[in-house]
Amino acid sequence: MDLNQAFYLVHVVEKQGFSAAARTLGIPKSRISRQVKSLEEGLGTRLLNRDSRHISLTEAGAAYYQHAKMALECMVAAETAVRKDKDVLEGTVTLSCSVGVAQFALGRILPRFLAAHPRVILRLQASNDFSDMIGDGIDLAIRAHTRLLPDSGLIQRRITSLPWHLFGATDLAEKIGATALPADLDGLPGLAIGWRPGDDFWSLQGPDERTASVPYAVRLRSDDMTTLKQAAADGLGVVALPAYVCAADVAEGRLSRLLPDWSAGQAEISLLMHDRRGNPPQVEALAAFLCRELPEIMNGDGHA
């Protein structure tokens, strides 16, 4: 069965003539006429009765028309199914990020991505230790860094800048006052991100490019930002955290930003991925989603 010839015959019948079918399809009438004639010759029977003004189906033509119409409808349905399937993302994506990003950012947006793409399976690795993307089979990684990441052969896409501020219990903020200077925090108990021993001071940036280094007495070290936030809210010390992590706590009065004219640094957030030529559609889609949605969440400033 020549579907092109069947296609032309069906159009001639439905448009009630060669001229009308030619106008609809935007092709010469002679082409349609040749195709229908070739179809009849191939079948060895006449399908259409023609005169100068009208056409009608022969008995054989009526039978052929019905089957041809169904065949063409099936082909259209098949093509639609294939095109539709191309738009449906399917497969697994492995994403790596820090515990804090998983808790305070991805938890708010990934359910929307998965709801929009029900055939995508996500494997989320939340760890504060950097993973080997190739060795561990990771498709995408969200990384915070203060210096340029080393050239690893991976594609690096900048997501946003992430400000860090100092936070403490509301009564501590009231005690030191809104006009406090870094020296007013000297010696206060501090809550440090990361469980391993490290520097026991805050590096602050203030107005007019001023800087300050403020030592503190460590009361708690932890990889878990939730634990640090709660300890700060309970009055156990001052903590430096990304602004968006504490935004809700500040808004609800559990925490206050200390030294509002000073920041505790700024990190760049980047998305790492393999060479684009080798990424399946679901990986590219999640990468685009993260680059679009994360900046709005991470740009919270921690003010009430």
Structure report:
It is a single chain. The chain has 304 residues and is an alpha/beta fold. It has 3 domains: 3-84, Arc Repressor Mutant, subunit A (Orthogonal Bundle), CATH 1.10.10; 91-159 and 269-296, 3-Layer(aba) Sandwich (D-Maltodextrin-Binding Protein, domain 2), CATH 3.40.190; 163-266, D-Maltodextrin-Binding Protein, domain 2. 41% of the residues lie in helices and 25% in strands. The chain is built from 9 helices and 13 strands. It has helices at residues 3-15, 18-25, 29-43, 59-87, 99-116, 170-176, 225-233, 243-251, 281-298, and strands at 48-50, 55-57, 91-97, 120-126, 140-145, 155-168, 189-193, 201-205, 211-215, 217-222, 238-242, 256-258, 266-273. Strands 3, 4, 5, 6, 7, 10, 11, 12 and 13 form a 9-stranded mixed β-sheet that branches. A two-stranded antiparallel ribbon has the order 1-2. A two-stranded antiparallel sheet has the order 8-9. Helix 5 (99-116) links the parallel strand 3 and strand 4 (120-126). The protein is rod-shaped, with a radius of gyration of 34 Å.
